[in-house]
């Protein structure tokens, strides 16, 4: 109970719970809509989803400052690839939160002259760039982990037989693919924060891909992706050691 109270006392913790609720409603609404006798339930889910989405906007009002702080931290990264990717990603998140704030102000009626569709598209574009750059960083980290796993295994194996070097040498295409997937599995298994961050960013990018028309998805896929991403986010907030660190 104490851990839950500490979690909900954090703005990020409350936002993750609201986000999980929002995308759960979206997923359930998609699953129930085809059935005519579920109209009332679908309407209630739609209202709850809208209310939770509005509540989340309040939590995000100060995220511009957090994104700027993340930019300052990423600049100090020692590795060039993470430094460039995370710095650019954070700058794009700053622009995304600015657009999101403008859209929120418009929804309150204080700036009714704002072009909603234009700002929404800008927000989706900046969010997409931020996630894309984060995924590039994740893939780079995955490649480093795969090299390390392959290196560690090569040290353990003294024999030069192709049968024992199945992680790095394969004559047949099927064996090569199996070796690669197995190497990827072991790399992510030994680094859970990297696994969570990769899954989270991959699931998150489905939404802006759909909004920008790059890859159209249905609300069910977006809802499921958002729910999985939210669960990953909840884990990283509840257990800070599961958050991918910048070196």
UniProtKB/TrEMBL annotation:
Q: Is Protein biosynthesis there in the keyword field? A: no
Major place of residence = membrane
Q: What is a single cellular component term in the Gene Ontology annotation?
A: peroxisomal membrane
Keywords in UniProt for this one? Membrane, Peroxisome, Peroxisome biogenesis, Transmembrane, Transmembrane helix
Q: Name one Pfam family in it.
A: PEX11
Gene Ontology BP terms: brown fat cell differentiation; peroxisome fission; regulation of peroxisome size; signal transduction
Q: Does the keyword Transmembrane apply?
A: yes
* One GO MF term attached to the UniProt entry: protein homodimerization activity
| Top-rank taxon, per record | Eukaryota
Indicate where this protein resides in the cell: Peroxisome membrane
- Membrane-spanning ranges: 220-239
Name the record gives this protein: Peroxisomal biosis factor 11 alpha
Q: Which organism is it from?
A: Capra hircus (Goat)
Which gene does this sequence derive from?
Answer: PEX11A
